[in-house]
């Protein structure tokens, strides 16, 4: 037991207590929490600085507004309903098409309008919000996932989680829905998290219920070697999102839409720790590297470049899609002091 | 230590708190000889008489009869709480003392005066004076023949006064006996003991009724209990008038004989005496010095044994709550047990104190399972959250009532104590459970329920540990140490034990 404790410490694995005390409490000002806890506010902030987010079709704040729900949904064939204060993907309803008077969920089951109204009213009463305070329900654009991950995600929309530490991307993973997670991309609901090398944007191994896996549990297809397009841009968006909130330690969730490109879904002030298992790398190790640098670059481009350089000492993973372009080598930056590579070991 | 980094300002506070708490405790233990272990103490019962009345605006005089001289031998300390009243003790020598409270202008509202006696646990001692034989009472028919028949039967089956008494009481305990039915129909006597005394007088056996307080477990707002005593020419002996078993209730403290009336008042209305008892423990060595006369020394620091008894009984429980909180904090932060709600397990553990562990767990699981089943049925009705919670609360209370009634009919006493379960908290738990079930599946629900139970059981063992309970009550300064420990836990940023398993993948490979 003590042996494992030491091993985990040596590898810089971050625990929940450590995360809360050393990072969340120290770097995330409580007054900033409402910005990310309320997804309507996050969305507004993102739109103000011109970051792409899924279109908001409407929000329901009071039970009385439920009567207008059908008008709100008119002409919308696919949409997502979620609580503005939800967490961990609870209370999210994804409607992928409409058939006559019925709404079709991603798993193929159909719901009448009355069921949707009840679902929204449950959200309004605050079941999914922290502390049960009354909540608002958001109805927004349903992302059409890029076909990139079609072979390794079971329905639903895979999303990319970037962990941003003091403005610098520190770790990344893509979260793939499974049959068990009911098309949702949340790890505790049974989705698979797959680590992404920051330097190359290529997927590595995955994590399912805290175990390392290399194949998708539903399809058995290999998870490794997928190359994420526009990786640099995704990292840039992630870093800008973190700036938006002023949180020093946060998780940014991005999606790749087939038509509209990368979009920001939400920001999390207490991102989970399974990302370490997916990347098979202790988080504290990465965060320590960043802390060891002393002063950090301010420009977004520099920060992204720094993030990729810090990760570059690892072997570039083999690419699965041989037809695709070779991985861009991480840019060499002169500004990165020698301390960075010293801290790496 | 790496995970206690950034500790320094906290370290000072923790050291100060723990140092003060432990220092005061040690000082109290060494200088004032307050025992640290319950084993080196003896039970002393505090008997508190509360004299409640309503003033009428004018002058007031309340005379309260204190315990008889024989009983005062067991009293090591007494204490009057007068609240501005003038107090004098009338001690005539031959008869029990009277406490007399007077006030010239009594406000016309509810008043309370208290008398506390600290009584050493021990057997009843009775005086030796020989009473005269009582005259045979003049019974009316059909009572006379019924009593005559009972006495005749008892006489045939006995040899002396005591065996005669036992036989009589045994016959009277049989509800199917025709004579007993007649006798039990008499209802105009103050108590069954009085009727029995009257029957025994038919055989010219001297009896008296002792009024006293049984000291078995802490109680509040009790009346004096009547108890039958029989004299055989040499000595008095107590009898349970209902069963015929000789003896007294445990540690019976006799206040007076023949009448429960202790009060004579002037200028007040609604005067009434009620008795509360609590067990305290003092060092056995002190007790030897104190028995007979004198007062217990007031130990330095916080001394809860001087508080009104009802309050003391509450603090016996309240002072254990911080320890429960410490257990929860430890199990969540250091071990990483998942639970429903933060302090829910502690409230459950408190309920377990009354129900006993096995029963408590069974009752908790029954309530939660049936409640959950009903909650899942309610889901079909699509109710709004707060009314839904309220309806689950109603269902939970109905369930508790059902369990109570059922166990009452089956004669299972533990089932009655279910009323102590924290209903509102339980309701919220059932609601949370159903949501966890819907969102995260059955596995997670079971994990968290088990986690809650594990924490509750640990809390139960800690809060029920007699040594800890003794320490917390007699050394409340230890709360500072508990506070220091929780602060320290709050600064813990190391792994939770469950994380060692969770991150096993990161420790193994590479």
What key phrases describe this protein's structure?
heterodimer, A: 345 residues, alpha+beta, D-amino Acid Aminotransferase, Chain A, domain 1, 2 domains, 7-stranded antiparallel beta sheet, 6-stranded antiparallel beta sheet, 30% helix, B: 510 residues, Immunoglobulin-like, 3 domains, 5-stranded antiparallel beta sheet, 4-stranded antiparallel beta sheet, 13 strands, 46% helix, 19% strand
- The Rg value of chain A, from CA coordinates, equals 20 Å
Question: What's the gyration radius of chain B in Å?
Answer: 30 Å
Q: Kindly, what is the distance between the CA atoms of the first and last residues of chain B, rounded to a whole number of angstroms? A: 27 Å
Helix content of chain B: 40-55%
Overall pLDDT score of chain B: 84
**Global outline of chain B:** globular
Assign the structural class of chain A, choosing from mainly alpha, mainly beta, alpha/beta, alpha+beta, or little secondary structure: alpha+beta
What is the mean pLDDT of chain A?
A: 85
Task: Describe the protein's architecture and organization.
The complex is a heterodimer of chains A (345) and B (510). Chain A has eleven helices and 13 strands. Chain A has helices spanning 2-10, 16-27, 33-37, 39-48, 69-72, 113-124, 231-245, 274-279, 283-292, 300-311, 338-344; strands at 56-60, 79-83, 93-99, 102-105, 110-111, 137-141, 159-165, 168-176, 192-196, 203-208, 211-213, 249-257, 261-268. The longest helix of chain A is centred in the C-terminal third of the chain and has 15 residues, at 231-245. In chain A, a hairpin with a 2-residue loop joins strand 3 (93-99) and strand 4. Chain A folds into two domains: 12-37 and 48-53 and 143-320, ATP-grasp fold, B domain (D-amino Acid Aminotransferase, Chain A, domain 1), CATH 3.30.470; 55-142. Mean pLDDT of chain A is 85; it is low at 322-326 and 332-345. Chain A has a seven-stranded antiparallel β-sheet. Chain A has a six-stranded antiparallel β-sheet with strand order 1-6-2-3-4-5, covered by helices on one side. Chain B is built from 18 helices and 13 strands. In chain B, the strands form three sheets. Chain B has a five-stranded antiparallel β-sheet with strand order 3-6-1-13-8. In chain B, strands 4-5-2-12 form a four-stranded antiparallel β-sheet, with no helix packed on it. In chain B, helix 10 (344-355) crosses helix 14, helix 12 (385-410) packs across helix 13 and helix 13 (423-440) packs antiparallel against helix 14 (442-463). The longest helix of chain B is centred in the C-terminal third of the chain and has 26 residues, at 385-410. The interface between A and B is medium-sized, with 36 and 29 residues.
């Amino acid at each position: 037991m003590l042996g494992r404790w030491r091993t985990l410490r040596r590898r810089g694995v971050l625990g929940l207590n450590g995360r809360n005390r050393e990072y969340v409490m120290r770097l995330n000002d409580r007054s900033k929490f409402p910005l990310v806890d309320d997804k309507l506010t996050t969305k507004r902030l993102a739109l103000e600085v011109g970051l792409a987010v899924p279109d908001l079709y409407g929000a329901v704040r009071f039970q009385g507004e439920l009567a207008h729900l059908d008008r709100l949904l008119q002409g919308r064939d696919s949409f997502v309903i979620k609580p503005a204060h939800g967490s961990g993907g609870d209370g999210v309803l994804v409607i992928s098409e409409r058939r006559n008077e019925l709404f079709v969920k991603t798993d193929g089951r159909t719901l009448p309008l009355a069921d949707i109204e009840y679902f929204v009213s449950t959200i309004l009463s605050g079941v999914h919000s922290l502390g049960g305070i009354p909540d608002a329900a958001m109805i927004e654009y349903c992302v059409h996932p890029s076909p990139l991950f079609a072979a390794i995600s079971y329905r639903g929309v895979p999303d990319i989680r970037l962990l941003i530490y003091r403005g610098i991307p520190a770790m990344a993973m893509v979260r793939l829905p499974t049959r068990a997670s009911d098309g949702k991309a949340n790890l505790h609901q049974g989705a698979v998290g797959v680590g992404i090398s920051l330097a190359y944007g290529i997927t590595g191994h995955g994590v399912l219920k805290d175990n390392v896996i290399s194949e998708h549990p539903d399809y058995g297809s290999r998870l490794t070697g997928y190359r994420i397009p526009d990786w640099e841009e995704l990292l840039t968006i992630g870093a800008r999102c973190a700036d938006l909130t002023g949180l020093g330690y946060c998780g940014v969730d991005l999606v790749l839409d087939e038509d509209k490109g990368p979009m920001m879904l939400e920001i999390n002030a207490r991102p989970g720790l399974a990302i370490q298992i997916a990347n098979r790398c202790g988080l504290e190790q990465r965060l320590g590297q960043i802390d060891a640098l002393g002063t950090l670059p301010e420009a977004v481009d520099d920060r992204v470049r720094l993030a990729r350089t810090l990760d570059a000492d690892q072997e570039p993973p083999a690419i699965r899609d041989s037809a695709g372009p070779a991985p861009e080598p991480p840019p060499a930056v002169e500004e990165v002091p020698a301390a960075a590579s010293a801290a790496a070991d | 230590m790496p995970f206690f980094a950034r500790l320094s300002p906290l370290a000072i506070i923790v050291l100060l708190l723990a140092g003060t708490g432990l220092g005061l405790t040690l000082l109290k233990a060494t200088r004032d000889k307050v025992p640290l272990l319950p084993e080196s103490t003896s039970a002393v019962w505090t008997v508190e008489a509360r004299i409640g009345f309503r003033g009428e605006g004018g002058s007031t005089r309340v005379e309260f009869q204190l315990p008889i001289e024989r009983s005062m031998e067991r009293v090591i300390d007494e204490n009057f709480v007068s609240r501005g009243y003038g107090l004098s003790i009338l001690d005539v020598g031959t008869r029990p003392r009277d406490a007399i409270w007077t006030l010239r202008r009594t406000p016309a509202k509810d008043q309370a005066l208290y008398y506390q006696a600290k009584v050493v646990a021990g057997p009843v001692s009775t005086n030796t004076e020989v009473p005269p034989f009582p005259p045979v009472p003049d019974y009316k028919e059909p009572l006379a023949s019924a009593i005559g028949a009972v006495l005749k039967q008892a006489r045939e089956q006995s040899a002396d006064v005591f065996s005669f008494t036992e036989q009589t009481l045994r016959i009277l305990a049989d509800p199917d006996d025709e004579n007993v039915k007649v006798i039990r129909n008499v209802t105009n006597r103050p108590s069954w003991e009085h009727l029995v005394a009257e029957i025994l007088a038919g055989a010219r056996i001297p009896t008296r009724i002792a009024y006293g307080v049984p000291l078995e477990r802490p109680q509040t707002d009790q009346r004096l209990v009547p108890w039958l005593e029989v004299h055989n020419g040499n000595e008095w002996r107590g009898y349970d008038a209902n069963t015929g078993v000789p003896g007294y209730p445990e540690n019976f403290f006799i206040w007076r004989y023949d009448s429960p009336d202790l009060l004579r008042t002037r200028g007040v209305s609604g005067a009434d005496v009620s008795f509360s008892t609590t067990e305290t423990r003092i060092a056995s060595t002190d007790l030897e010095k104190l028995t007979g006369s004198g007062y217990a020394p007031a130990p330095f620091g916080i001394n809860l044994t001087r508080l009104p008894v009802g309050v003391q009984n509450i603090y016996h429980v309240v002072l254990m709550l911080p320890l429960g909180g410490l257990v929860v904090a430890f199990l969540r932060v250091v071990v990483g047990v998942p639970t429903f709600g933060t302090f829910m397990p502690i409230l459950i553990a408190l309920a377990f104190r009354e129900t006993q562990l096995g029963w408590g767990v069974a009752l908790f699981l029954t309530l939660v399972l049936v409640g959950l089943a009903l909650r899942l049925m309610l889901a079909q009705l699509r109710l709004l959250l707060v009314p839904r919670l309220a309806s689950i609360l109603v269902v939970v209370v109905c369930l508790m009532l059902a369990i109570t009634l059922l166990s009452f009919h089956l004669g299972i006493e533990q089932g009655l104590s279910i009323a102590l379960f924290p209903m509102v908290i339980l309701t919220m738990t059932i609601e949370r459970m159903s949501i966890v079930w819907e969102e995260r599946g059955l596995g997670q629900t079971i994990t968290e329920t088990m986690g809650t139970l594990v924490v509750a059981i640990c809390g139960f063992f800690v809060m029920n540990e007699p040594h800890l309970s003794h320490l917390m009550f007699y050394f409340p300064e230890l709360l500072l140490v508990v506070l220091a420990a929780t602060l320290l836990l709050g600064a813990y940023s190391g792994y939770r034990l469950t994380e060692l398993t969770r991150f096993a993948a990161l420790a193994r490979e590479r």
